[in-house]
Write a structure and sequence with these properties.
A: five-stranded parallel sheet, 4 helices, B: alpha/beta, Rossmann fold, five-stranded parallel sheet, four-stranded parallel sheet, about 35% helix
Chain lengths: ~180, ~325
């Protein structure tokens, strides 16, 4: 099997600037008036949500609560996998009722993770709105789900792999595209 | 690590890492007990057989609640109403249940080793919900979770277990969990319920028939239910048991001030436990019940996901 070709879509500086731009769009378009909260999807949605919250705070002075969502129990493919994946805690230490929730994830692909995330959020209450912010939208949706805020739109084939690295988890910021041969 | 067990038959064969993993998984399910909507669809379409060949209310309801919260269906078999009363053998009953194609079978039986016997013969995961005087592993795990939540750790604690240790599968499962974390176990109760061989089942076990001595420096005090049918003259009349072994406020005061008081239930107030102790802030009896659902959700989740035939037997 020929080696997969990896290209860098965003370097560290570009990744940082993209996240910065997402934070500004959130402030401009959604605003903080209605009490927004950021919900990071494990795993790389969590540091992304933390950075966005810090940037929104810097721009507006508003404290933005951050929740952590583990979608494992809501996956639709559990009956297809050999062993059930490890479940991690969901930690959303505030009421989601009547709040604008911005779900944050690194890559938007089929949309199934976001479907699972929305099911998880509705088990916690009735949010006013759910918005979606992703660093990369790589297309190939299998569900009618679109992101409100997109850092970078990338043309891919379904077999390609988009890899997001973040300082907090991977030691550096960058986005790679691994082309299938 | 990941969970590779096909069955959960006891805590004796589990390693410390495996227990830690199971407790971590259970913690993920603790949050669901606090959600407004506690029902998940994770195990939708899966079915759980609750085969209770011995009466049980709380353990059966706890497993039933855990299955319901995961979206699984349950099928109940109770010994009173089953064909075991008509003389069917355990293996025939188990095979009949298996032929209904459940995904996991939870079994309680008066005979020690019955769940192992069934596990060896069926092609589906088996959870031991209490077998004779052998083990009750989910109780051992939920007690460990409760201790670690209350005290912030499980390592190196002084644990005193009081009552009918001889016939207690709860005590055995707890001993096998806690000694793996370096806990020092003191067993106390009437001599007839404290056979010497109990000291050999794990390291760091001490037998102390004098309850006051046994409670000294205890950080965890577990009071076991007295099965009244075992309290008979001339062995030990109930009033004598109460005089020597009832957990009273004065006795609990001999333990560490921050000691936690546990009871696997059902409690008989006024026999093995003074109501003032049962309702004291040190008591975590109700947390044990809540944690029981979380532990059993984790077990059902993990065991229904395993690939058939894989992994060892726990």
């Amino acid at each position: 099997m020929p080696a997969r070709e990896k290209t860098q879509l965003l370097n560290a500086a570009q990744t940082g600037r993209t996240i910065e731009r997402l934070a500004h769009e959130i402030v401009e378009k959604t605003g903080v008036k209605h009490g927004i909260a950021l919900i990071g999807i494990r795993r790389r949605g969590v540091p992304l949500a933390q950075r966005l919250a810090g940037m929104v705070r810097a721009a507006t002075g508003a404290e933005v609560p951050i929740g952590i969502l583990d979608i494992t129990l809501y996956r639709d493919d559990l009956s297809l996998v050999a062993a059930h994946p490890v479940v991690q805690s969901t930690d959303i230490p505030f009421s989601v009722d009547d709040r604008d929730l911005i779900v944050v994830d690194d890559v938007l692909f089929t949309g199934r993770t976001i479907r699972a995330a929305m099911n998880g959020l509705f088990d916690l209450g009735r949010p006013r709105r759910i918005l979606l912010c992703v660093l990369v939208d790589r297309g190939h949706r299998e569900l009618p789900i679109e992101a409100t805020y997109v850092g970078r739109q990338v043309e891919t084939r379904p077999e390609d792999v988009v890899e997001v690295n973040l300082k907090e988890i991977d030691g550096e910021d960058r986005v790679l595209l691994e082309r299938a041969p | 690590m990941s969970f590779t067990f096909r069955h959960l038959l006891g805590t004796e064969a589990l390693t410390r890492d495996e227990i830690t993993f199971l407790l971590d998984q259970s913690r993920a399910f603790q949050g669901i007990q606090k959600q407004p909507l506690k029902k998940l669809a994770t195990l939708r379409g899966k079915s759980v057989v609750l085969a209770f060949f011995e009466t049980s209310t709380r353990t059966r309801i706890s497993f039933g609640t855990a299955a319901a919260r995961l979206g699984a269906d349950t099928m109940n078999l109770q010994a009173e109403s089953s064909s075991t009363q008509k003389g069917e053998s355990l293996v025939d009953t188990a095979r009949t249940l298996e032929a209904m194609k459940p995904d996991v079978i939870v079994i309680r039986h008066a005979a020690s080793g019955a769940p192992h016997f069934v596990a060896e013969r069926l092609g589906i995961p088996v959870i031991n919900a209490g077998d004779g005087v052998h083990e009750h592993p989910s109780q051992g795990l939920l007690d460990a979770l409760t201790i670690s939540d209350r005290l912030g750790r499980m390592e190196g604690l002084n644990v005193t277990i009081v009552g009918d240790i001889r016939h207690s599968r709860v005590a055995r499962s707890n001993i096998h969990v806690l000694t793996k974390f370096g806990c020092r176990i003191t067993l106390s109760g009437p001599a007839m319920w404290l056979p010497q061989e109990l000291a050999q089942i794990a390291p760091n076990i001490r037998l102390e028939p004098h309850l006051e001595e046994a409670l000294d420096r205890a950080q965890v005090v577990m009071v076991l239910r007295v099965q009244t049918e075992r309290l008979q003259e001339p062995a030990l009349p109930a009033d004598e048991y109460i005089r020597l072994y009832q957990m009273t406020p004065a006795r609990l005061a001999l333990a560490r001030p921050d000691a936690v008081l546990m009871h696997p239930g059902p409690m008989i107030r006024g026999l093995e436990i003074d109501p003032a102790v049962a309702d004291s802030p040190q008591s975590c009896v109700l947390e044990q019940v809540t944690n029981g659902v979380a532990v059993r959700m984790a077990l059902l989740y993990l065991l229904t996901g395993g690939a058939p035939g894989s992994g060892a037997t726990g």
